[in-house]
Automatic annotation (TrEMBL):
GO BP, one annotated term: DNA restriction-modification system
Organism: Sporosarcina ureilytica
GO molecular function, one term: DNA binding
InterPro entries: HRDC-like_sf, HRDC_dom, HRDC_dom_sf, Restrct_endonuc-II-like, Restrct_endonuc_IV_Mrr, tRNA_endonuc-like_dom_sf, Type_IV_Methyl-Rstrct_Enzyme
Signal peptide start-end: none
Name the UniProt record assigns to this protein: HRDC domain-containing protein
Stretches assigned to the HRDC domain: 228-304
Length: 304
């Protein structure tokens, strides 16, 4: 994943180097002294730092708005920073390793004495055994207490088996969606998620404590409850509903709702008609035809 972004990173470093060189030449041409060169280079570095801070804040805002469909389109380095930003909201300090010579870790998460090495895999296919093999030796290299692999996808059976035998935590697409939902709600001030992550526990949801600290509308509360249902389970029920309506109406399945709309339904989990209107691809006609049944599928799933 990182190999695809190394070239871009090197280009950025080359541009920064060129800017500093040009600044030095301009300083010498303008002032004719080493002090002038130093001032010119210093100002350039200052502008670069300001630009970097601006980019970081801009990326944080982007993270707040990112759904799983946007995450799927991220580059490898963008995904690493996305993961780091999520866990920084949980009280961790994220440090990113170099794009080359990372010794098997894409980023390091620290909280108190806890040190976690992380392999971040933004994949379109299932993540294989190599990710686990890479992160295991990184624990010793970085003197870490735990090793995680985090992905927007799922894992092969071999990867899961190796991870279990080496106590490596595997955070998959479902858990990533859950983290993203909680992060956005926390940033929006609708709820506060208090999450404690234990490296020895197999699933993040088993050790996640969610406390609602604000008075929120019933529809939001219902949404939070429905998030306990896995994304896979909800997706399966929605596909089943789509197939049923397709057969009843004689329409193609994508005319009921597209896969992009399906992804957004799974992530946002609307439980009212007003919330359903916020889903891309759900126009008034589709809402009139399928809206009430769709929100009922999502709302009632936890009771099935």
């Amino acid at each position: 994943m990182r190999n695809r972004t190394k070239r871009v990173q090197k280009e950025i470093e080359s541009i920064i180097g060129l800017l500093v060189l040009v600044a030095g030449l301009v300083g010498w041409y303008k002032f004719g002294t080493l002090k002038g060169v130093g001032i010119s280079v210093g100002v350039t570095f200052g502008l670069i730092i300001i630009f970097s801070i601006w980019r970081k804040e801009r990326f944080k805002k982007r993270v707040q708005q990112s759904r799983i469909t946007e995450i799927d389109q991220m580059s490898g380095i963008e995904f690493e920073k996305y993961v780091g930003t999520l866990f920084e909201s949980l009280g961790y300090r994220a440090t990113y390793t170099p794009t080359t010579g990372d010794f098997g870790a894409d980023l390091i998460l620290k909280k108190g004495k806890e040190i976690i090495v992380v392999q971040a895999k933004r994949y379109k296919r299932s993540v294989g055994i190599a990710a686990v093999q890479e992160v295991i030796p990184a624990m010793k290299m970085y003197n870490a207490s735990a090793a995680w692999v985090i992905s927007n996808s799922y894992y092969t059976k071999a990867a899961i088996k190796l991870a279990k035998s080496n106590h490596v935590r595997m955070i998959n697409r479902d858990e990533l969606i859950q983290l993203g939902i909680n992060f956005r709600k926390k940033q929006a001030g609708l709820s506060e998620s208090v999450q404690t992550v234990e490296a020895s526990t197999p699933l993040l949801s088993n050790v996640q404590e969610v406390k609602l600290t604000n008075k929120i509308e019933a529809s939001i509360a219902a949404t939070l409850e429905s998030e306990a249902v896995s994304a896979n389970e909800l997706e399966a029920h929605l596909k089943k509903y789509r197939l049923k309506k397709s057969r009843e109406s004689g329409l193609k399945a994508f005319h009921i709702f597209t896969n992009k709309t399906l992804d957004e339904l799974v992530e946002k989990r609307p439980v009212t008609i007003d919330e359903l209107r916020q889903i891309r691809g759900m126009g008034e006609k589709k809402i009139a035809d399928f809206g009430a049944e769709l929100v009922k599928v999502i709302r009632d799933l936890k009771l099935q």
